[in-house]
Amino acid sequence: MRAPILKTFMALALTLSAVAAEARGLIRDADVEYALREVAKPILRAAGLSSNMRILLVNDGTLNAFVADSQHIFIHTGLLLRLESAQALQAVIAHEAAHIANGHLTRRAGNLRTARTVAGLGAILAAAAAASGNSQAAAGLAIGTASSARRVFFGHTRAEEASADQSGVRFMVRAGIPVEGAVEVMEIFAGQELLKPGRQDPYARTHPLSRDRLRALRAQAAAFEGRGSQSASAEYWFQRAKAKVAAFKRAPAWTFRRSKESPSADIRHMREAAAYHRQSKTNKAIASINKAIALRPNDPFLLDLKGQIQLESRQYSAAVATYKTAAARAPAQPLILGGYGRALLAAKQYKAALPVLERARAADFSDARILRDLAVAYARQGQNGMASLVTAERYALQGRLKDAELHAKRAVGLLPRGSGPARRAEDVLSAARRAKR
């Protein structure tokens, strides 16, 4: 059987910038994704779910989290920034994991079966657009209306929500995490019910939150009072992810005012580096991130941020050297490899960039930037068929099936008949043609 073209559809399902100008997308950052995974690990183990499940961050200021398949949990930036502790974030993850563990997705799985191939991309894109609140983008995609997309993603019943609450608490207790975090989260959402519907966040409108559920969680928390303790490691990674997202989402002045409140010196220096970079104060940004690196010299993610600052400041040779060190310390980290490949391209080291970007793509098919850069590397090496194929796949992943068809057709004509890449191009071509019908 052919390997699926879209190994991780849902990771790109929200990358809608190419579909509509106002569409929301994912924040793809190696540091943040690693931090979320570290926070989630004990919950996923307690739920009996794969430790390879991905926790992805949606660039959206609303208070929301959701699952769409058994491999991904999506959390909005608005919710992450609103939470105050790792145990609160773990409560959100536990609740969403419970929907997977309890089989709540099964009865909706029929709507998403085509997600295993590119043929289902239109439906997935539209559903994800609706899930993130972007009904305008959703309306123009293959699934049809945003309301039908919402029913796919948010078809929760009160019974399912109550079940997920109870299971989520059990997972937290089993993982040795204080249940008070679940109460903290429910208090945030219960307050949403007091607002007019138009001012409520999507989570409040699509999940049947109620004072009864809050009372039930408080009762459970009381029953397990004193059980468990918060992991210092989980708290560190939660605070680090939250701090980095805030540093890039909020005004630099806000970051500088609050940087001294950081829970550790390395996080403070990282925040200040991001803020200086956003002000184009490159020397100060590099000095700040170097202070963070001095405190955690083996941390590849701090090097990743330094490489990003150098690359975006046009210090290409320096960025290559920094990314090379980061990639050596995290050789299986696709987003770091992607940054390394991007820096090599910027430094016009095209031959060296190609194998790095190929490794990044093999590890993670869900970053359109990697596909874009890989297409450039192939083209620079005279491999025009592969360049067309990767471009077609990138457009398919972004829901631009008309453009995908054009490049897939070109790839089919250039690639050896019957080869693996040619079959991938044929898959994209077939999907694009079905979408037209």
Notes on the protein architecture:
With 437 residues, the protein is mainly alpha-helical. The chain has a domain at 9-223: Metalloproteases ("zincins"), catalytic domain (Zincin-like). Helices cover 65% and strands 3% of the residues. It contains 23 helices and four strands. It has a four-stranded mixed β-sheet with strand order 1-2-4-3. A hairpin with a 4-residue loop joins strand 3 and strand 4. Helix 4 crosses helix 8 (158-174), helix 12 (232-249) packs parallel to helix 14 (265-278) and helix 21 packs across helix 23 (420-436). The longest helix has 18 residues, at 30-47. It is globular. 54% of the residues are buried.
- What is the helix/strand order? HEHEEEHHHHHHHHHHHHHHHHHHHHH
Unreliable residue stretches: 1-24, 109-155
Span from first to last CA? 25 Å
Question: What's the average pLDDT?
Answer: 81
Could you give a short account of the major beta sheet? 4 strands, mixed
Q: Compute the CA-based radius of gyration.
A: 22 Å
Features:
4-stranded mixed β-sheet; 437 residues; Zincin-like; 65% helix; 3% strand; mainly alpha; disordered N terminus; single chain
Quick overview of this protein structure:
The protein is mainly alpha-helical. The protein has helices at 9-13, 30-47, 77-82, 86-101, 121-131, 135-139, 146-153, 158-174, 180-192, 202-206, 211-223, 232-249, 252-258, 265-278, 282-295, 300-312, 316-329, 334-346, 350-363, 368-380, 384-397, 401-414, 420-436, and strands spanning 26-27, 54-58, 65-67, 72-76. The chain has a four-stranded mixed β-sheet.
